[in-house]
Design goal:
It contains 4 helices and 7 strands; from the N terminus they run H-E-E-H-H-H-E-E-E-E-E. It is of the alpha+beta class.
């Protein structure tokens, strides 16, 4: 079954950037679809039942978020992101683009579970030549621990997008060094 956005004429997730596809997969896999208000019952105290509303509340919250993302056109959302990126200093923009691209790349790698932070400049500043940033001082947090990695990040000619990110994971960073490198 293909869900359609009311009045928009495109399948949910089909015309959106890849980062939104996972959000739509979550809703498609749910019991009652996106924003389902059905609550499951569980045995409660004294033999009665209590409604478990947390799940439906979470789904409703996600549905509102997705609706706000879908109601603004992807091109419009991209323009806002472009404006915010242009406002950053060039060096800061490159670091942020690589951090975001690195986070997406680590998330796709099944060997590294539950990555929640990526900092390419945690241990050492990157070197930038033309449209490529390289370094051996990146840090990634997974499972509550930080690991060092080296990387290569490629940008578009206007340096507004990262087109490629590759890495080599290194050893764990000892907890005694976390404060020194501002890792939390």
């Amino acid at each position: 079954m293909q869900r359609r956005n009311a009045g928009r004429g495109f399948a949910l997730g089909a015309a959106l950037p890849p980062r939104f596809h996972r959000i739509f997969q979550i809703f498609a896999a749910g019991d009652g679809g996106a924003g389902s208000a059905t609550a499951r019952t569980q045995p409660g105290q004294n033999g009665g039942t209590t409604l478990r509303k947390r799940e439906s509340g979470v789904r409703l919250g996600w549905a509102c978020l997705v609706l706000s993302l879908v109601s603004s056109t992807p091109a419009g959302a991209q323009t806002v992101l472009d404006k915010r990126m242009q406002a950053l200093e060039p060096q800061t923009r490159l670091i942020q683009l690589c951090n975001l691209s690195g986070l997406e790349t680590f998330a796709k790698d099944k060997r590294v579970a539950k990555v929640d932070r990526v900092r390419i400049d945690a241990l050492a500043a990157p070197t930038v030549e033309s449209n490529v940033a390289k370094g051996a001082g990146g840090a990634v947090r997974t499972g509550g621990r930080w690991y060092k990695f080296s990387y290569r990040c490629v940008f578009t000619n206007d340096r507004m997008r990262a087109t490629h990110f590759s890495y080599v994971l290194d050893k764990e960073i000892p907890k005694t060094q976390w404060e020194r490198f501002n890792l939390f």
